[in-house]
Amino acid sequence: MKEAFLIVIAYLIGSVPTAVWVSKAFFGIDIRDYGSGNAGATNTFRVLGSRWGTFVMVMDVLKGVAATSLYLLLPYYTTSEWDRTNLMVGLGLAAVLGHIFPIWADFRGGKGVATLFGMVLAIQPIVAVCCVGVFLLVLYLTRFVSLSSILASVAFAVFILVIFNEKEPLYRAFAIAVALLVILTHQKNISRLLRGSESKVPILKYRDRRKMRRRDDKPE
C-alpha cells in the first residue's frame, strides 16, 4: 500500500510541466504551440534558447532523481538491494510516465528523456555519467538533441548489457526497454533526421560561424 502511494507521488512529480510553466510565466506562450509541439527540453532549446532549454533540462532531470529517490521514505528498501532496485525502477517509470502524460498540463508533455536520465542517475550514477558523455559528444558534433538522446539511450543498453555486464534480469530488461522507448518516442525526429530537416539547437553557434569564416577565407 505504501509503495503504491509512493508511485502515485512519483507520477505527480514527473507531471510537473517545467517547459509549459516556464514558457507561460516568462514568455506568455505555451511551448506546445511552437516548434515540435513537445513540452520538453529539446523544444525549449529550439524555441526559447539555450539558457531556458538548459534550465528545463536540469529541472526535468531532477524530477527523475527526486521521484526515484522516494524509496528512502521506506526504511526496509534501504537494506534490500533487489527490492530497492525494483521499487526504484517502478518509481522512475512512474515519473517518466508523468512527464509524457502530465496531469498538470492536459496530459500533453514531452518525451521523457531528461526525466529518464534522472532516474538512471539515481539508480546507477556511473552508467548515467557515461551516457552523459555520449550525449554531449554527439551534441557537440551535430547539435541535434534528438540524435544525442537516441544514441545515449542505445549506449545505456550497451553499458548495462555488455560493458558493465549487469547481472540483475530486471535491470537488463529495463535497459533494453529504455533504448526502445526513446527510439519509439523519437519516430518523427528520426524521419526528420533522415530527410535532413531536423532543427539544430542554438548552441555552439560561434563555433559554426568560425568554420564558415574559415571556408570563406580560403583562396579559390
Radius of gyration: 19 Å
- Beta content comes to under 5%
Largest sheet: none
End-to-end span in angstroms? 74 Å
- Give the rounded overall mean pLDDT: 88
H/E series, N to C? HHHHHHHHHHH
How many strand units? Answer: 0
Structural class: mainly alpha
What is the count of distinct domains?
Answer: 1
Poorly predicted parts: none
Helix content: over 70%
Q: How does this structure look, described?
A:
The chain contains 11 helices and no strands. The radius of gyration is 19 Å and the shape is globular. It starts with a helix and ends with a helix. It has one domain. With 220 residues, it is mainly α.
Fill in the keyword field for this structure:
220 residues; mainly alpha; 71% helix
Topology:
Layout (H helix, E strand, L loop, with lengths): L1 H13 L3 H10 L13 H8 L1 H19 L12 H20 L12 H11 L1 H18 L2 H19 L5 H17 L1 H9 L9 H13 L3
Task: Give a quick rundown of the structure.
The chain has helices spanning 2-14, 18-27, 41-48, 50-68, 81-100, 113-123, 125-142, 145-163, 169-185, 187-195, 205-217. It is an all-alpha fold. The protein starts with a helix and ends with a helix.
